[in-house]
Amino acid sequence: MKVVVDLSRCEGYAQCAFLAPEAFRMHGEEALTYDPKPDDAQRQQVLRAAAACPLQAILVDQLEGRDAPVEASP
Known about the structure:
3-stranded antiparallel β-sheet, 74 residues, two-stranded antiparallel sheet, single chain, alpha+beta
C-alpha cells in the first residue's frame, strides 16, 4: 500500500491522524507527517482515514496490481 497526501490541499483537520494514528501524525496545529508505505495491517484504518478527509487530500494506491488507486470520497 502506498499513501500520498497532497499537502497543499491539507488544512490540518486531523481526521486522518485520529483514525490512523500510526500512519498519520500532526506536528503542531497544522503540520501533517505521514508514512508513505504503511504496513498492510493498517489497511482498513488508512482507507477510513482517506475517506474521512474533508478535502480529499489523501490518495491510497493498494499496489496489488488488481486495485486502481483509491481517492478519498466525502
